[in-house]
UniProtKB/TrEMBL annotation:
Signal peptide: none annotated. The chain crosses the membrane at residues 6-25, 32-49, 91-113. InterPro entries: Spore_V_AE, SpoVA. The lineage of its organism: Bacteria, Bacillati, Bacillota, Clostridia, Eubacteriales. Keywords: Membrane, Transmembrane, Transmembrane helix. It comes from the Bacteria. This is Stage V sporulation protein AE. The keyword Cytoplasm does not apply. Pfam families: SpoVAC_SpoVAEB. The keyword Glycosyltransferase does not apply.
Length: 117
């Protein structure tokens, strides 16, 4: 039960930060999303985001900030093994499943539903 509580609180806090960026800072949704990815990447590079995921579970691993963490994590892991080229390949290697899923499910949704435009 305690894990659910903290997942809700941390996930909700990340969402509140995103909403405040749009309402107070007047950022567009695209700018807000990029800002949250960069924040996740910075926290991941400092080793803090993985601790947040251990503490809050899905509350920290589901929001878009987790994507930035995964980018940095993949780049650092591959850089240790393959040097500078590993920075580029690691980013694609660790995030390819999520990106591929988004493309496939987006395509399927476009086939099933009528886009408005």
């Amino acid at each position: 039960m305690d894990k659910f509580f903290w997942a809700f609180i941390i996930g909700g806090t990340i969402c509140v930060i995103g909403q405040l960026l749009m309402d107070v800072m007047k950022l567009t949704p695209a700018h807000t999303m990029c800002t949250l990815v960069v924040i996740g990447a910075i926290l991941g590079g400092l080793g803090l985001y993985d601790q947040l995921v251990k503490f809050a579970g899905a509350g920290a691993s589901v929001p878009i900030s987790s994507f930035g963490n995964q980018l940095v994590k993949g780049a650092l892991e591959e850089a240790e093994q393959n040097g500078l080229i590993g920075v580029l390949t690691g980013i694609f290697h660790i995030t390819s499943a999520g990106i591929s899923s988004a493309i496939i499910f987006g395509f399927l949704a476009a086939l099933i539903f009528r886009p408005k435009g």
